[in-house]
């Protein structure tokens, strides 16, 4: 039996991070978590580029436009919190579909660090409190997938 999996070493890897400014109290914590994961795993600061967008809905547009910039992976970060209107479902569904579609077509992995929550408390929990930091987790997935992608291309 032969098993293929990526490692968590980011030396010489380049990453783009697309992060929403909307709900920035939480999305900035996701960004901090992603940067922490990348730096802890040997990704040089000069190999990380951050693109800030107004809201989660705009994330797929920027991801689509940066996947050809020579990155080994792209990390999408944002927070969508349920409100009193249908807006939550529209944004959460469309950003998810957009990232999924781009991920299937791209030559590099795109990881999904977009929190969709019912409350401020859930958003807090997923951006560094009880449930960990989904930005950190998305960066770890990007590291693993970028290294696996190198194996797949050999």
From TrEMBL:
Q: What is the protein named?
A: 6,7-dimethyl-8-ribityllumazine synthase
Q: Cross-referenced SUPFAM superfamilies, in alphabetical order?
A: Lumazine synthase (SSF52121)
Sites binding (2S)-2-hydroxy-3-oxobutyl phosphate sit at 84-85, 126
The biological process GO terms on file are:
riboflavin biosynthetic process
Family note: Belongs to the DMRL synthase family.
Q: What is its EC number?
A: 2.5.1.78
Q: Which PANTHER family match?
A: 6,7-DIMETHYL-8-RIBITYLLUMAZINE SYNTHASE (PTHR21058:SF0), 6,7-DIMETHYL-8-RIBITYLLUMAZINE SYNTHASE DMRL SYNTHASE LUMAZINE SYNTHASE (PTHR21058)
Molecular function GO labels: 6,7-dimethyl-8-ribityllumazine synthase activity
Q: Which InterPro entries match?
A: LS, LS/RS, LS/RS_sf
An example Gene Ontology cellular component term from the record?
A: riboflavin synthase complex
Q: In which pathway does it act?
A: Cofactor biosynthesis; riboflavin biosynthesis; riboflavin from 2-hydroxy-3-oxobutyl phosphate and 5-amino-6-(D-ribitylamino)uracil: step 1/2
**Which species is the source of this protein?**
Marinitoga hydrogenitolerans (strain DSM 16785 / JCM 12826 / AT1271)
Catalytic residue list: 87
Tell me the residue numbers annotated for binding 5-amino-6-(D-ribitylamino)uracil.
22, 56-58, 79-81, 112
Reactions catalysed, semicolon-separated, are: (2S)-2-hydroxy-3-oxobutyl phosphate + 5-amino-6-(D-ribitylamino)uracil = 6,7-dimethyl-8-(1-D-ribityl)lumazine + phosphate + 2 H2O + H(+)
């Amino acid at each position: 039996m032969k098993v293929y999996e990526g490692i968590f070493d980011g030396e010489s890897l380049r990453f783009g991070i697309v992060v929403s400014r909307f709900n920035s109290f939480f999305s900035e914590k996701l960004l901090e978590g992603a940067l922490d994961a990348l730096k802890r795993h040997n990704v040089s600061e000069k190999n990380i580029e951050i693109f800030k967008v107004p809201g989660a809905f705009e994330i797929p547009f920027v991801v689509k436009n940066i996947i050809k910039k020579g990155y080994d992976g792209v990390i999408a970060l944002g927070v969508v919190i349920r409100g009193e209107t249908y807006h939550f479902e529209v944004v959460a569904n469309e950003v998810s579909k957009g990232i999924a579609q781009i991920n299937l077509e791209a030559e590099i992995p795109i990881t999904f660090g977009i929190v969709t929550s019912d409350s401020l408390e859930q958003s807090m929990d997923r951006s560094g409190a009880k449930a960990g930091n989904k930005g950190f987790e998305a960066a770890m997935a990007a590291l693993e997938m970028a290294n696996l992608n190198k194996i797949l291309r050999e």
